[in-house]
Write a structure and sequence with these properties.
The protein contains five helices and nine strands; from the N terminus they run E-E-E-H-H-E-H-E-H-E-E-E-E-H. The chain has helices spanning 43-54, 56-62, 74-83, 97-101, 145-153; strands at 13-15, 21-23, 31-36, 64-70, 89-92, 105-106, 116-117, 120-124, 130-135. By secondary structure, the chain is an alpha/beta fold. The strands form three sheets. A five-stranded mixed beta sheet has the order 5-4-3-8-9. The protein has a two-stranded antiparallel sheet with strand order 1-2. The protein has a single domain (29-153), classed as 3-Layer(aba) Sandwich (Glutaredoxin). The mean pLDDT is 90.
Length: 156
């Protein structure tokens, strides 16, 4: 189960596609939408990242920062970002610390692959608290974008 709403959001320091360290403190005082995903270049993950890309005007209109996190290496995420013209940060949690702290660690993915991020989304409010949390039971299922947007509307 993903970290519960009302909890303090754990701090993180991860690398982006340019191998620059990005810290949760960089977003202090902002609404942050953390999308966790199992692996770049897979069907459902590609659909999810492209949905985020296509909805960026909505997120920007709310002043929300979108970040996607997976255990893929920065160079893989960079290729994924370039292929799909992604207009927000993709962060590498190759050490798997953040997915553990946000309770988004998937023990058994597919084909015996262990230790990837679950598919889910966490909204952090301006005070650094978890305002919304969702994980999908099946990694092949998309997150509930309608519920996510309803949660974001409450933070206006």
């Amino acid at each position: 189960m993903a970290i519960a709403p009302g909890s303090k959001a754990p701090a993180f320091k991860l690398y982006n596609t340019e191998r620059k360290e990005i810290s949760s403190s960089d977003f202090a005082g902002k609404v942050v939408v953390l999308h966790f995903f199992p692996a770049a270049f897979t069907g459902v993950c590609t659909e999810q990242v492209c949905t985020n890309r296509d909805d960026m005007n909505y997120y920007n209109g709310l002043g929300a920062t979108v970040i996607r996190i997976s255990v893929d290496m920065p160079f893989s995420l960079k290729a994924f970002k370039e292929k799909h013209n992604i207009n927000f940060e993709l962060l590498s949690d190759a050490n798997k610390l953040t997915i553990h702290e946000y309770e988004m660690y998937h023990c058994n993915f597919i084909c015996g692959i262990k230790g990837v991020a679950k598919r889910g989304v966490i909204v952090i409010d301006r005070n650094g608290m978890i305002a919304y949390s969702e994980e999908t039971v099946n990694p092949g299922t998309q997150v509930n974008f309608t519920a996510l947007k309803e949660a974001l509307e409450k933070l206006k």
